[in-house]
Structures are given as C-alpha cells and as structure tokens.
C-alpha cells in the first residue's frame, strides 16, 4: 500500500481555547509517512442503515418528542449511487488507539500508530437530510410519512449516537473491560475548502470546487471532542463486554456491528449549531512503545470511500451548505481532528480511504416542523425539491441506463403534441442539463453525463403546464 502524505498548509482558523489542553484551531502541516494496512482485515456484511424513527439498539429512551436518525454515511451512500453497500462495498476499517506510544504494522514496516480517535460533524439542516424526495428511499418508509425537520432557527437535543465497526478481541481474559469514550458537543460556524488552493478560507468568494467544514473544540488529553464550557458537552464511557466483541476468522474477516448508545441525559444544542461526535477506544492493557496494537484488543471504526480510485468527488460549486464531515486525530497532533476533506485533498489518488465515517446521531425537537416524504399528490412541503406530478398528457417516460455512466437517455411519448422541456438537476437543486423540443409528441433527450459527479440526480419533463419528476443515479 502506498504512503500516506499530508502536505504542509498553515493553520486556517482558531476559535479560542477551553482549559489548557483544548483548541479548536485547525492545523495542516505534518508529513504523514505511513499508510496503515489495518491488518488486511475485511468486513463481512454492510453497515447498518437506521430506520427513521426507530432505535437501532433498542436502548433509546422514549419521550413524546419527535425524533429521527441523522446518518451522513447512509445519506452520502444514496447520493453517490450506493458505493458503501452491495456485494462489494467500498468500506475500510480504521484502526485507532488512544496513545501514540505504541507501534502499528504498515506496508513499509512497523511505525507509530497513525490515528488516536475519529469524529463526525453532523449538520441537521443539510439540504439532503430534508429532501422529501430522498427520505422514503433513505429510510425505507412509506410515501407520505412525516419526519422531523430541524432548521437553523430551532434548538434541538441529541438523544443517542451510533457507530458501525467491530470490537476485535485478541486477549479474551479481562478483569476490567475495555471501553469506548463517547463525546458529543456543539459545533458552530464553518469554513470553506476550495480545491484550487487546498486551504481553508472563512468566506466563499468564487465558484470553485469546494467543501465546507465545521470546527469544534478538542480535548487533547482525553482525545475527544469538547466545547467551550463543560455544561455544553456530554462525555461518558461505555464498557465493551465480551458479547460485543468479535474475533478474526480463519479467512481474515470480522463482522460489522452497529454500536448504539443513549446519552446519559439528552444534550441540548442551541439554534444554528451543528453536533460533533467523537469515538475513542480506551484499552485496559499495559503496553510499551515496542509493542504493536495487533497484540491487543482494539476497536475498528468502519468508513466508506467513494470510488475504487479512493478520491472524493469534487463538484463545481457543490455542497457549500454541507458542513457534515469526518475528522481524524493523528498521533503526532492530538490537539486537532483533521477533516478527511483535507487529508484526501493532500494525498495522491488511492492513498486515503477513510472519507465518510459511520458515526450518526438520533436527534429530537419539540418545536420543530415536520417534513413529509414525497408522493405524487402530496410531495412534501419543507426543504425538498419534490414537485406535484401532473401527467395526463404524458403517456410514457423513462430514463436509461440507471445508473448512468457517460450518457443518459430519456425517451418520452405524449398524448398530444406540445412544447417539451427536459431538465436534469443535482441533489442540491442546481441545473446540470436542459433540452427543449417544440411541437413534438414523441422524442428523447440525451445527456452527456461523463462530467457529472457520481450521485443522485432528478430528471423533469415539462409540457404545457404539466410535469413529471423522477430520480436517476450517475455512477462512474
């Protein structure tokens, strides 16, 4: 496996400090010289996709507040054309250890363990979380169902968190159990990451290809996400029992498990804030700097990557409002969680496959609105791009191939001739293609999709005041 290198970039921002060991500044500037092989452990099965209103582990408290899972991993999987699920899921285990004072096996030989902790920022007002066209597909629920809609005007609470992975048990005898240290804290503000400059900037000024990133405080001693005041975060330890564990099979595989934990008490998040969730493994073993993590029990977090080349897909001017994203704490820099956006941007193609973490959160809000999943007659009034399909003059319409690769064909037949417009829009509502036809009853629109980013798109046919909208996936 190739080396993992993070090229130098100056610190981009700083939002103050909490106690002596906590910082929210982002630092990019340390070379990463080894890429972990993660023991060549293979996952068996697919990551859990949480039902909309149902707890995954059965241990969520029950209240009268409406709630739902906010699962960025599953949402991106749908938008990107399902690369994380299926017969050959594009997923990888991430090996973390709470101390840099231990070795790990790399493709180049033994070296200091790379990662101490993983984290995920969740922004519940993200467009695609609230797109009524996506919700029934994402959650597997019936058309017309109502789900929670959290916008920036309302505060909300985090009830529970979940992470997909495996607790790999090498040493089965335990006087004191290993544990996961879970931390949940608010995250405010965001910075942009243009591809052209590979630096985080505080304002968006050009239509460059970019992502956004939301910063949060870090406790570098405990290796967790934190906040400016102790009252606004929740940190607790979850014992890992033998029943939660897995062992390496004779073929070098382990099973994927969904670890779902209720917060000791619900954490209130102020309006306009995101949520940062960190997961840190804590071993009860004693070890030395000459030891290797492969000799001990450890927790492997499951991540997804977009394509076999390993690189994340940049789209022109895309996802400016998407502040969701994974972060990793490096052993050489415990004061920060480096966004996977930045790590990916500074490494050659195929060198980094920990782009989308499986950390998710179950959130509730008693003052928020509801969003209704799409139906033909009731297309969902809030946040989505659903339209009411009025199709009395549209005899037939389809789109193939689906998924599309380099070309998408949309044939249609009308009951009577009319002026037709066929439009393609992406998941955030941007028009990516449009064709017009005058006085026609049968025809087809052909779009070149070779330059489209992989993901979910919508095609719409409009004729004389009537229209039809459906989904299509582009997958390269």
Which descriptors apply to this entry?
mainly beta, Immunoglobulin-like, 2 domains, 8-stranded mixed sheet, 5% helix, 41% strand, globular
How does the SSE layout of this entry go?
Blueprint: E1 17-18, E2 22-23, E3 42-44, E4 67-70, H1 72-79, E5 91-95, E6 103-106, E7 109-112, E8 115-122, H2 132-139, E9 146-149, E10 156-168, E11 179-187, E12 191-194, E13 210-213, E14 217-219, E15 224-226, E16 234-239, E17 245-246, E18 253-255, E19 257-269, E20 274-282, E21 298-304, E22 325-330, E23 333-339, H3 340-345, E24 356-357, E25 360-364, E26 369-372, E27 394-397, E28 407-426, E29 431-448, E30 455-463, E31 466-474
Parallel strand pairs: 3-18, 10-17
Antiparallel strand pairs: 1-2, 2-14, 4-25, 5-21, 6-7, 8-20, 8-22, 9-26, 10-19, 10-21, 10-25, 11-16, 11-20, 12-13, 14-15, 21-24, 22-23, 27-28, 28-29, 28-30, 30-31
What does this structure look like?
The chain has 476 residues and is mainly beta. It folds into 2 domains: 17-370, no CATH class; 387-474, Immunoglobulin-like (Sandwich), CATH 2.60.40. It contains 3 helices and 31 strands. The strands form 8 sheets. Strands 4, 5, 10, 17, 19, 21, 24 and 25 form an 8-stranded mixed β-sheet that branches. Strands 16-11-20-8-22-23 form a 6-stranded antiparallel β-sheet. Strands 27, 28, 29, 30 and 31 form a 5-stranded antiparallel β-sheet that branches. A hairpin with a 2-residue loop joins strand 30 and strand 31 (466-474). It is globular and about 80 Å long.
